[in-house]
C-alpha cells in the first residue's frame, strides 16, 4: 500500500477566527483529488499552543495571521525560527528536499529572520482585492506560470517588506517575484509581494489560498459587510465584491499558485501522469 503524502500546516492565526485555514484545507483536499493521492494533513497551532512539526513531512504550508511580525519575546518565536533554520539546513545537506510555502504573516517573519530587508508598519492598512505586478523573475517562476501581468490577489496587511538587502538575497539564491501596485503619486517604496527564497521555499505577502466564491460569500454576510464599510467605506466594499465575483481575478489566482506549488513539491511522490 502506498504511504499517504504527509503535509504540515503551520497555523499562525493565534486562535483568531479567519478564512485562511479553511481555504488552505479546501485546496489541499482538491489537490489530493486531482493528483489521485492520499494526503495526511496535520495542523500545528504555532502561536497559541507553541506547536511545530518535525522534518518528517513531505511539504509545509505556513499560514497568514494577525498581529505584528516584529521581534517579540513570545516563546513560539524562537522555536519557529529554529524550525526554519533546520529546514534550510536539511535542504542544504540532504538529497530529498522539503518544500515550504510562506503566506503573509509567515512571509514577513521569515524575511525578517533571514535579514532580507526592512519589515515595518505601513502608514495605513492595505486591504482589498488588489493588482500584483510580476518582476522578470516572477514571469519566469514555474509556480506562477499562467498568471497575467498584473494578476489580482487578496491583500490584507499592516506591515510590509521594503528596502531589500540584495546581497543577502543573493547569498540564498533568492529572487523577488512580485511587487505591489504602482502608486506614482505616493512617495513611498513599493512593498515586495513575493520572494523565491530558495529553490524549495517560496513566500507571498498576499493570500494565494483565498477563493473567490467562498470569500464572496463571506463578504456578503451582513456582519462582514458592515465591518468593511465601517473600516474602509462603501466604495472599497463595492470594489471588493465586484472583483471577488470576477472569475478572472481571485478564483484564477487560487487555481494557479498553491496547486502548482504542491505539484512541484510532491513531484517525486505521485505518479508522473498525475502531474501532466
Q: Could you explain how this protein is built, in words?
A:
Helix content is 39%, strand content 24%. It has a 9-stranded mixed β-sheet, with helices on both faces. It is of the alpha/beta class and 276 residues long. The mean pLDDT is 91. The protein has helices at 20-35, 46-49, 75-93, 105-113, 136-140, 166-172, 212-219, 222-232, 234-245, 250-265; strands at 5-11, 39-45, 59-62, 99-103, 118-134, 151-162, 175-180, 192-196, 201-204. The protein is built from 10 helices and 9 strands.
List keywords for this structure.
single chain, alpha/beta, nine-stranded mixed sheet, 10 helices
Task: Characterize this entry briefly.
The chain is α/β, with parallel strands linked by helices. The protein contains ten helices and nine strands.
Question: What is the secondary structure topology, with strand pairs?
Answer:
Elements: E1 5-11, H1 20-35, E2 39-45, H2 46-49, E3 59-62, H3 75-93, E4 99-103, H4 105-113, E5 118-134, H5 136-140, E6 151-162, H6 166-172, E7 175-180, E8 192-196, E9 201-204, H7 212-219, H8 222-232, H9 234-245, H10 250-265
Parallel strand pairs: 1-2, 1-3, 3-4, 4-9
Antiparallel strand pairs: 5-6, 5-7, 7-8, 8-9
Helix pairs in contact: 1-10, 7-9, 8-9
Amino acid at each position: 500500500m502506498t504511504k499517504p503524502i504527509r503535509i504540515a500546516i503551520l497555523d499562525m492565526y493565534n486562535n483568531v477566527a479567519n478564512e485562511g485555514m479553511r481555504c488552505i484545507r479546501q485546496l489541499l483536499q482538491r489537490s489530493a483529488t486531482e493528483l489521485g493521492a492520499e494526503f495526511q494533513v496535520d495542523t500545528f497551532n504555532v502561536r497559541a499552543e507553541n506547536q511545530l512539526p518535525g522534518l518528517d513531512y513531505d511539504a509545509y504550508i505556513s499560514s497568514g495571521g494577525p498581529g505584528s511580525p516584529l521581534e517579540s519575546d513570545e516563546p513560539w518565536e524562537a522555536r519557529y525560527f529554529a524550525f526554519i533554520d533546520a529546514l534550510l539546513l536539511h535542504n542544504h545537506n540532504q538529497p530529498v528536499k522539503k518544500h515550504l510555502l510562506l503566506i503573509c504573516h509567515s512571509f514577513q517573519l521569515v524575511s525578517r529572520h533571514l535579514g532580507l530587508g526592512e519589515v515595518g508598519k505601513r502608514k495605513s492598512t492595505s486591504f482589498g482585492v488588489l493588482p500584483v505586478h510580476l518582476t522578470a523573475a516572477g514571469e519566469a517562476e514555474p509556480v506562477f506560470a499562467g498568471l497575467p501581468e498584473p494578476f489580482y490577489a487578496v491583500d490584507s496587511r499592516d506591515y510590509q517588506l521594503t528596502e531589500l538587502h540584495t546581497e543577502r538575497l543573493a547569498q540564498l539564491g533568492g529572487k523577488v517575484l512580485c511587487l505591489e501596485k504602482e502608486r506614482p503619486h505616493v512617495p513611498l517604496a513599493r512593498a515586495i509581494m513575493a520572494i523565491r527564497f530558495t529553490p524549495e521555499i517560496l513566500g507571498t505577502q498576499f493570500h494565494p489560498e483565498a477563493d473567490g466564491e467562498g470569500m464572496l460569500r463571506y463578504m456578503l454576510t451582513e456582519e462582514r459587510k458592515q465591518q468593511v464599510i465601517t473600516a474602509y467605506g462603501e466604495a472599497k466594499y463595492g470594489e471588493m465584491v465586484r472583483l471577488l465575483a470576477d472569475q478572472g481575478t481571485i478564483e484564477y489566482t487560487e487555481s494557479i499558485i498553491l496547486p502548482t506549488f504542491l505539484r512541484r513539491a510532491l513531484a517525486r511522490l505521485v505518479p508522473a501522469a498525475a502531474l501532466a
